[in-house]
Amino acid sequence: MTALRWVCLSDTHFGAENSILSPLSSGFPTVDPDGESAVLTDLVECLRALVSCSADGGRPRLVLHGDVLEMALAQDNVAGMVFERFVDLAFAGPSPVFDDTITYVPGNHDHHLWETARERQYAAYVERRAPGEVLEPPWHVTTMVPSTKAPYPEAELLTALVRRRSASPVRIEVAYPNFGIVPEEDGRAVVVHHGHFVEPLYRLMSTVRTDLFPRQAPGPEIWDWEADNFAWIDFFWSTLGRSGDAGDDVGLVYDMLRDPAAVGLLAANLAGAVAGTLPRWARPGARLVAPSLVRRTARSVARRERADPSALLSASGERGLSEFLAGPLRRQVERECPRLLGLDVSFVFGHTHKPFERRQTVAPFGRPLSVFNTGGWVVDTMAAAPLQGAAAVLVDDRGAVASLRLYNQGDDAGGYAVVLSPPVAEHHHEFDDMLRRRLDLSSPPWTSLSRSIAAAVARRHEALPAIVERGKALAARPRRW
To answer: Which domains does the chain have, with CATH numbers?
Structure first.
């Protein structure tokens, strides 16, 4: 009989003010790490109910695949304390929801957790080398499937946060950028990735390198993609926003990009600052050119995959997904686990904040893949964005996959409901039957979660204009150039 074995969640952005899982203060919308998030409480109650419906009553492994801690736009202590609240609900007490091992697959907003883990891993390797022995260069990825020869490193900060609040011996291991679930029974397999490499923006350094030196093509392997771009990803998306007061202002700029008038103020201020550093004769030209460059950059950031309201994946995103699946992912599979090429493989990613499920043909795998997106928990628009939402992707002991759609944004509270998405595989599977038979999504705690989400989304839509107006007021302060 089928049994739930893995639960995949992503893009919780714990600590971000625009995450509906972060508790907000009662006044100006800032995160109150000592507060309560009704959405987070209800979500964990739903996960507990989900786990209790499994046939064998065992605890599944939690897979957190990226942007779980907000390390780009929140301070470490705030993100950590909100994560601890999740730990209180899911792991503390006599009946933890999940297994004592958590697999963490970092994304772009928490990429630094991978950097610290791999540096400790390399330091341990150096300690084992004899004096005078040649050292290998640092590696930038883990194996897709852990083994005794290549165990996953520990995310020590996260493990410390868990153990500070829970007596259970929880260990958080880091896999990056791909994590494979390969049941002993042949037939199905699952690959989990955060999803940032689907966007060209996160391969910018590879592109720049090729533009500068056209005779040097980008490397084809997954470690080439990461080795070229890790510093860029880590700096801009995982450390810059934690740089003291300046980092707080980075977060404010990010919110202000939603408002053309706010972008105009920022552009004018930057133009004046740039002009002040130039010879007097060049200042008028700088004041003309710099605002245009700022607006162009703002439009580029706003066109990121998660900010496109018109499609689940843009044309660029579709190309990026196909390139990733048929390129570095396929090569890693061929090298490490070639039998996957003949299996029914499911690919799970997040990053876009727009959940979906579908079949996709990728020639090297021999058959279509089932593609699942877990969406996200951030609300960063001033009006409802119906494609944005979140799902939990569930995997059973045989590698069958189901998507539990937890919400999509709506215009009114009555439009929110938790639903089990239709199967996308060519063949029906017992796992889907079991979930539909045992889950009553029309009653609490599922309906309670929907009400909490509706209220939290509405509050974020109301909060963003206030945040933008605050930024405009700060940007409008007179300056001397």
So the answer is: 4-240+304-466 (3.60.21.10)
